[in-house]
Amino acid sequence: MSKVAIVTDSTAGLPRDLVEKYDIWVEPQTLILKGVSYKDQVDIQPADFYAKLEAAGEMSTTAQVTPVSFQSVFSNLCDAGQEVLAIIISEKMSGTLASAQQALEMLPGRKIKILDSKFSAMAQGFIVLAAARAAAQGANLAECVQAAEQARANAGVYFMVDNLKYLHMGGRIKASARFLGTALDLKPILHVNDGQIEPLERIRTSRKAKERLVALMLAGIKGKQHCTGINICVCD
């Protein structure tokens, strides 16, 4: 058993085999669709959820991991003799980090560190993996935090969507940004900047937008010997 336990939330999108290999604790977010609640990756897997979402024809909502859930996990891990590093979805995208901080306040004196990944999805997952690999090699809490922070500095996210309607409806971007993305039927390219989703460019045609995503990725990794990962997502 590693000296340091790595905890994250399900938005990290980590594959099950890596979760098991590195003994990562993943706290599920709650997905709510048409009044039915699902624990992410527990009650429902992503492919099934997206199929239900498309069939429903309406937006889903989410409920963040509760402080009590984090408190239980942190307490059990500390009682087992481990220190804890929790790497959480960006606080600018979700209140999950605040829940983890509240749990920390309930456990004074425990060796627990909460780290804002400043990302979501697999960019967050790469940061978690960097910390988990360090822990598996016997790193202490401070060394695991250092590994995660280095991975965070080398991570990036670029993505294209057909339009910004759903990001706006979900509160991820401002109304002004949505308007800019839909004007003249341009394809918006977005990125994650300092923990929040922001429009980056507007490109004519999907093909050119996809080519631009690849160019952005190559520019992002240029000169980096240990690039944790640049996420590219095309959402038509």
Written description of the protein model:
Helix 4 links the parallel strand 6 and strand 7 (112-116). This protein has two domains: 4-29 and 64-152, Rossmann fold, CATH 3.40.50; 155-235, Hypothetical Protein Tm841, Chain: A,domain 3 (2-Layer Sandwich), CATH 3.30.1180.10. It starts with a strand and ends with a strand. The longest helix has 16 residues, at 121-136. It has a four-stranded parallel β-sheet, sandwiched between helices. By secondary structure, the chain is α/β, with parallel strands linked by helices. Helix 3 crosses helix 4 (96-105) and helix 5 packs antiparallel against helix 6. The chain has helices at residues 16-21, 46-56, 67-79, 96-105, 121-136, 141-153, 165-169, 175-182, 206-221, and strands at 4-9, 25-27, 30-33, 36-39, 61-63, 83-88, 112-116, 155-161, 187-193, 196-203, 229-235.
